[in-house]
Write a structure and sequence with these properties.
The structure holds two protein chains of two kinds.
Chain A (H helix, E strand, L loop, with lengths): L1 E5 L2 E5 L7 H8 L18 E4 L2 E4 L5 H4 L3 E3 L11 H8 L9 H14 L5 H8 L9 H12 L6
Parallel strand pairs in A: 1-5
Antiparallel strand pairs in A: 1-2, 3-4, 3-5
Helix pairs in contact in A: 3-6
Chain B lengths: L2 H7 L39 H4 E3 L5 E5 L8 H13 L6 E5 L4 H4 L9 H28 L6 E4 L2 E4 L4 E4 H9 L30 H5 L15 E6 L7 E6 L1 H5 L3 E7 L13 E6 L2 H9 L2 E5 L8 H12 L4 E6 L2 H6 L3 E9 L11 E7 L2 E6 L4 H12 L6 E5 L13 H12 L5 E4 L2 H6 L7 E9 L5 E9 L17 H4 L12 E6 L16 H19 L3 H9 L4 E2 L1 H4 L14 E2 H15 L9 E10 L2 E11 L5 E11 L6 H20 L5 E2 L2 E2 L18 E6 L20 H13 L15
Classes of the chains: A alpha+beta, B alpha+beta.
Chain lengths: ~150, ~750
């Protein structure tokens, strides 16, 4: 049996320990904000936090998440008002929106580690997250906006 | 809230039957000989307010969106149009998504950049009619003449007595009013618009999106739902020869393995067939599928090889083809030219790869079918489900979720049908059918592949006197029952080839034959992509040969500002619109070019290794011109610091989303220009996931994209398309910028691997 904590709630799972965390949170827990995009860790749509660090849940077997604290987009903030969520809305970043939970989770992890990243650091940190609508310039701008706001993180 | 819940709760609307179809005003003299726009597509448009608007007693206005949302902002824009004419307060507006039901909602097929092009006028009428009904209700309540009351910001006012009644209070009585005729409606003057043409309205789904609450096709969950994936024939036209599921069935969680029928080609919208694995969760289904042992009978396309096919296309392009347009005498003009230039361009197959792969949930049983799907075309899904399940269409419901990208892929309902076929085989249990990324790329409905062969002649004063264009590409028609599956359809040629208004005395356009060996279909930009890449690259090559500035030379080719009936150019399709309303307008062509050139600082000197490129195109009745700035390092590394784009798409309903669509179109264009290519060997697509089918990432995107709307607030003009027009000029502008930076002329996409100097 695997025991883990998802958005502050203890969860137990008795099935295949090789099941990727992605399918556990989506199919078993019903937390569908974490998206399937590639299944190979190539696109970032499935990004969640393990102990605050961005990981690709589609290539993270449940066994590797055992005993750890997982945060999905649903648990990123209390009232869905994380500074990045606000900035995303202020700048109308999303188009179809499908990749944006993963983008926001990736950006949150970046800003936690590096509150004032350079342009190049933003691009490097976000280069694993694909957006086919092409919202990259606004993703970049939204991260810069938050990084430029003192004391919001 | 679902549409059904809304219907029960609300007073005004939604009409379930007895539809009153009020037709919009028509052009004088536009007889029934030929229909255009929304009137020319199946099921047309609707303007009955009871179809689109419900007002609850608490004043909440619920607006039905009849087109699919895939990031273009249509749910917001449709609501803006209706709410504006309705004089509704935006904070009291909710949007619900129409299920597939075109008899009721009009065409819902969300393709070809036409939702607002077709919908703007009828949706305005729907909003204005509901406003008139509220005013009539208030006048009746107060016993005052109708002309003394005015609807304003969610209430109706009586000027004489300062009385006012909110929309909620009026809703019941308003619903009893007759729906006014279209002819008598008072539409707002554009100066009175509250939302239309303004950039302040937030996208309706943005809060749901940023917290992961937005519901896409893959997010549907039903009680007792099962999960399925399918192993499909890797070659178009292939079918199952033999399979062994014994190991797959041993995977814990796997419940069933089902062989699916592969119909003969051409398949149209039908699924490919294969072997479905049904399980208790997605992961078990995937593991089960891995354990299948399958032998395929590859069928007629077993030898499709894209390298060999390219050579075939090139051979075809070097020989005459079906004559599409012939003006003057090209042979004579070329023979007599002082200078001749010729070039050939290659544009490979592309895959859509929307971030959400195709996914649907279906439940079939008890003589009915209900599906939930990220569909661009829910009525076609409904029709095909009814046909293949042997059900009356009325017994089939297709609910439309948000789409995690569509780009044309999700106009095909094959994946919805797959979910239903598996559900039927599972005794009616609801089934979620998920395509993996590999499924999506390997078995996509691909963008065509093409060779574009161009020749031109210049006279002694460097004027173009001859233009020969042979375009060769397998046609979208090959997917269906086209009479001639080897030649492009008129609308495909009308995307930039036959509607090209160059003022050259001798022009010939030919279309040699090309047989399709895979599924060819719609992709954002469609054949505008190869056509714009070839033509706008070739113009740069001609300008160079003429010793002219590229921008000036392009303007000279377009000639003086004038409007032309596209049929005179050889294009009778004109994106389905009336050429008297939507002529080819060289003035609009010129203005986007001049605007972007000015704003981007065209002609400014850049250091070695850096360059500007320009290109323009008319697409879906809109005009765009782009300047790309490219920096190419000695090792071939490319940076695009800036892209400027001017767009004239007629009046803009939602300027903020138009801007977003141009930004997205630029990135889509950069992705296909730099990176995109699907190749085939032995009939099989060779790219499987994002490591092989590369798409633009943040590091490939321009740091800055500047958008310049042209005449965006001129509501005397008809609206044009928005979703695609930003795409076609990107690849040629980039290739032209790379030439300016490096002196290297690249004529085959993708450009990315050819940049090493």
């Amino acid at each position: 049996m695997i025991l883990l904590y998802v958005n502050g709630t203890e969860q137990r799972f008795e099935g295949d320990p090789e099941m990727p965390l992605l399918w556990f949170v989506r199919d078993v827990l019903g937390l569908t904000g974490t998206k399937f995009g590639c299944g190979m860790g190539l696109c970032g749509a499935c990004t969640v936090h393990i102990e605050g660090n961005a990981v690709r849940s589609c290539v993270t077997p449940l066994a590797a998440a055992a005993g750890r604290k997982i945060t999905t987009i649903e648990g990123l903030s209390q009232a869905n008002e994380h500074p990045l969520q606000n900035a995303w809305r202020d700048l109308n970043v999303a188009q179809c929106g499908y990749c944006q939970p993963g983008q926001i989770m990736q950006a949150a992890s970046l800003l936690r580690d590096k509150p004032h990243p350079s342009d190049a650091e933003i691009d490097a940190a976000m280069s694993g997250n694909i957006c086919r609508c092409g919202t990259y310039t606004r993703i970049h701008a939204a991260i810069k906006k938050v990084a430029g706001e003192e004391g919001v993180l | 809230m679902s549409l059904n819940e809304s219907r029960r709760a609300f007073v005004l609307g939604f009409a379930a039957g007895g539809l009153v179809l009020a037709l919009g005003p028509r052009l004088a003299g536009a007889q029934e000989a030929r229909k255009y726009g929304g009137d020319a597509i199946p099921n047309g448009t609707r303007d009955d307010p009871r179809v689109f608007i419900a007002i609850a007693e608490d004043g909440t206005v619920t607006i039905v969106c009849n087109r699919s949302e895939m990031g273009q902002g249509v749910r917001t824009s449709v609501a803006m149009v209706i709410a504006d004419e309705l004089e509704a307060a935006w904070s009291r507006v909710k949007v619900v998504q129409a299920p597939g039901d075109e008899a009721r909602f009009g065409s819902q097929n969300t393709i070809a950049s036409r939702s607002l092009r077709h919908g703007f006028a009828p949706l305005r009428r729907a909003g204005a009619a509901a406003r008139a009904m509220l005013e009539a209700a208030a006048a009746a309540t107060w016993g005052v003449p109708l002309n003394e009351v005015t609807a304003q910001n969610h209430e109706v006012l009586h000027a004489g007595s300062a009385r006012r009644l909110g929309y909620g209070a009026l809703a019941k009585r308003a619903a009893e009013q007759p729906v006014p005729s279209a002819a008598g409606l008072k539409l707002k003057h554009p100066a009175q618009f509250r939302y239309i043409g303004q950039a302040h309205t937030k996208p309706i789904d943005d809060a749901d999106i940023v917290c992961g609450r937005a519901h896409y096709g893959i997010d549907t969950r039903l009680d007792e739902m099962l999960y399925a994936v399918i192993a499909r024939p890797p070659v178009y036209g292939g079918k199952l020869a033999w399979f062994d599921a014994s190991e797959a069935r041993k995977v814990p969680g796997v419940l069933e393995v089902i062989a699916l029928y592969s119909p003969p080609v051409p398949l149209g919208n039908q699924p490919l067939g294969g072997v479905a694995v049904v399980a208790a969760n997605t992961w078990a289904a995937l593991k089960g599928r891995e354990k299948l042992r399958i032998q395929w009978d590859d069928g007629v396309n077993a030898s499709y090889d894209s390298a060999a096919y390219r050579a075939e296309l090139e051979t075809a392009a070097r020989n005459p083809g079906v004559l599409v347009r012939d003006v003057g005498d090209v042979n004579e003009a070329l023979a007599g030219a002082a200078k001749r230039v010729s070039a050939e361009y290659y544009i490979p197959h592309l895959s859509h790869a929307p971030m959400e792969p195709p996914c649907a949930v279906a439940r079939v049983g008890g003589g009915s079918c209900e599906a939930w799907a990220c569909s661009q075309d829910p009525q076609s899904a409904r029709n095909l489900l009814a046909k293949l399940l042997g059900l009356p269409v009325e017994r089939v419901t297709v609910n439309v979720t948000l789409l995690g990208g569509g780009f044309g892929r999700k106009s095909r309902p094959d994946f919805v049908v797959e979910a239903a076929l598996v559900s039927r085989a599972m005794a009616g249990k609801p089934v979620k059918l998920t395509w993996t990324r590999e499924d999506d790329i390997v078995n996509d409905y691909f963008h065509t592949v093409s060779v574009e062969h161009l020749q031109a002649g210049l006279d002694e004063s460097h004027q173009a006197v001859a233009w020969l264009h042979r375009t060769v590409a397998p046609t979208i028609g090959s997917l269906g029952a086209a009479k001639d599956p080897q030649h492009e359809l008129a609308f495909e040629l009308g995307m930039g080839v036959t509607d090209l208004p160059f003022a050259i005395p001798s022009i010939r356009i030919e279309n040699p034959a090309a047989a399709a060996h895979t599924r060819i279909s719609w992709m954002r930009g469609v054949t505008n992509i190869p056509h714009a890449f070839a033509i706008q690259s070739f113009v740069a090559e001609l300008a160079l040969a003429a010793g002219r500035d590229h921008k000036d030379f392009l303007l000279d080719l377009l000639g003086a500002p004038r409007t032309i009936d596209s049929a005179e150019l050889g294009d009778k399709t004109n994106s389905g619109e009336d050429p008297r309303i939507y002529p080819v307008d060289t003035g609009r062509w010129r203005r986007v070019i001049e605007t972007v050139a000015k704003e981007a600082g065209w002609g400014r000197k850049l250091p070695k290794g850096q360059g500007l490129g320009i290109a323009a195109h008319r697409c879906e009745l809109s005009y765009a011109a782009i300047v790309v700035e490219a920096h190419v390092a000695a090792d071939g590394g490319l940076v695009i610091p800036r892209v400027d784009i001017a767009v004239d798409c007629g009046p803009q309903v939602n300027p903020e989303r138009v801007r977003a669509q141009m930004e997205g179109g630029v990135v889509w264009g950069i992705s296909l220009a730099l990176l995109g290519e699907i190749t085939f060997k032995k009939g099989r697509a060779q790219q499987t996931n994002f490591h092989e089918y590369r798409v633009a990432r943040i590091t490939d995107a321009p740091r800055e994209i500047h958008v310049y709307p042209v005449a965006a607030d001129d509501f005397t003009r008809p609206p044009g398309g928005v979703g695609e027009v930003g795409v076609p000029p990107v690849a040629p502008a980039l290739a032209n910028a790379i030439f300016a930076a490096t002196g290297k002329r690249l004529r085959a996409l993708p450009l990315g691997d050819q940049l090493g100097r």
